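Blinded run. Sample ID left blank on purpose so nobody reads anything into the name before looking at the predicted structure. Input follows.
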Amino acid sequence: MSDAKKDFHAIEAAAAQGDAEAQYDLGKLYYNGSDVEKDYAQAIHWYQKAAAQGLAQAINSIGDCYFYGHGVEKNDSKAHSLYEKAAEQGLASAQSNLSMTITGVAVQRKTIPRHSTGL
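Blinded prediction complete.
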């Protein structure tokens, strides 16, 4: 068995035992397709288990899934809410993601005045 397979099985075993960091790591492996076939549904499953234990990185990653529509229907509002929850824990990447969604919301709401061209 390769070292990568051993590592995957060790992470999988720890995740099954309820280790939040391992659950998050397993989610990342499925999300990125590292050492296992890419599977967004499995990634979300493991991210949710870690997020239920309050792991900010997992909450942020679920936000990414909603922001990009990976494994779930794209939902900027849910992504924003999840980024905010992770950012409140001090996670820098979530704070950055949160500012991105705020900027995106502001841009979407901005209206451009129409000028009459006289044509």
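Unblinding after everyone has recorded impressions. The helical segments are 3-16, 20-32, 40-52, 56-68, 76-87, 92-109.
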